[in-house]
């Protein structure tokens, strides 16, 4: 029943009608209560696998809840909201609870893989929402960037399971995702570098941006991902060019 109501929530969120918001919230409640009841039932018989999977379902439900709270005005997506953040934080918590249950169980490795994958996806989704719809009216640019970097770094951490398993059916997708994360981090650091005046911090930002560009280039295939690969090369050249121009400006104004 939990999955049934969760799927209803997913469909409702895709075609969100504010007039039906109360009904949608009721569907979320029914899904949550069903999953919670399932966890309690499986706890009585110590069925760790199903308890962990139900925590994964609760994590996904909270992701849909975050989508429910996406602020849209006249069809235009607005800044990342506090309600979205709170929903994602709850999703992280449920996934991490599930992981904790199976992290040392070799017999439940596939469950561990699934939870790690879903958790990585959730961190990535929140990070991209923060980056693309930065809440500049409520947070400083520095704090937003720190949160993006933290989420992206965690997304990479939980991708390791798939990246270290070339035979995995998710390997190619995980590799593309990791490359995308490194590209986004490189672009973010690149932009911050351009606006930074502190010499020491500029050097660190330059080094980090270059590192992430290189990692992204290693993961993207010029044959399979030619546009992404070319975009990376152009951005990296632009970074070097900006640095040279800045150094020349500093030299002539010394």
Characterise the protein shown here.
The protein has 254 residues and is an all-alpha fold. It has a domain at 163-254. The chain contains 10 helices and 2 strands. The protein has helices at 2-14, 21-44, 48-68, 82-102, 109-132, 141-157, 160-163, 171-195, 199-219, 226-252; strands spanning 72-73, 76-77. It has a two-stranded antiparallel ribbon with strand order 1-2. A hairpin with a 2-residue loop joins β1 and β2 (76-77). α3 runs parallel beside α5 and α4 (82-102) packs antiparallel against α5. The longest helix is centred in the last third of the chain and has 27 residues, at 226-252. It is globular.
Q: Topology, pairings included?
A:
Elements: H1 2-14, H2 21-44, H3 48-68, E1 72-73, E2 76-77, H4 82-102, H5 109-132, H6 141-157, H7 160-163, H8 171-195, H9 199-219, H10 226-252
Antiparallel strand pairs: 1-2
Helix pairs in contact: 1-2, 1-3, 2-3, 3-4, 3-5, 4-5, 5-6, 6-8, 8-9, 8-10, 9-10
């Amino acid at each position: 029943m939990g999955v049934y109501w969760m799927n209803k929530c997913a469909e409702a969120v895709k075609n969100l009608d504010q007039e039906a918001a109360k009904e949608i919230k009721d569907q979320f409640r029914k899904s949550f209560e069903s999953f919670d009841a399932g966890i309690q039932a499986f706890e009585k018989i110590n069925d760790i696998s199903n308890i962990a999977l139900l925590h994964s379902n609760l994590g996904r439900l909270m992701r849909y809840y975050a989508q429910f709270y996406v602020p849209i005005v006249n069809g235009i997506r607005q800044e990342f909201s506090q309600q979205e953040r709170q929903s994602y934080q709850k999703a992280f918590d449920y996934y991490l609870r599930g992981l904790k249950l199976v992290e040392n169980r070799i017999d439940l490795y596939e469950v561990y893989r699934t939870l790690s994958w879903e958790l990585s996806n959730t961190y990535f989704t929140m990070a991209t929402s923060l980056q693309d719809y930065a809440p500049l009216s409520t947070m400083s640019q520095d704090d937003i960037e720190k949160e993006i970097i933290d989420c992206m770094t965690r997304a990479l951490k939980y991708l390791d399971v798939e990246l270290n398993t070339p035979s995995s059916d998710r390997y190619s997708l995980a590799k593309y995702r990791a490359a995308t994360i490194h590209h986004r981090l490189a672009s973010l650091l690149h932009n911050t570098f351009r606006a930074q005046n502190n010499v020491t911090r500029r050097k660190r930002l330059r080094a980090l941006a270059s590192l992430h560009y290189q990692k992204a280039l290693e993961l993207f295939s010029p044959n399979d991902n030619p546009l992404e690969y070319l975009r990376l090369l152009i951005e990296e050249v632009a970074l070097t060019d900006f640095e040279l121009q800045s150094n020349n400006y500093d030299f002539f104004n010394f």
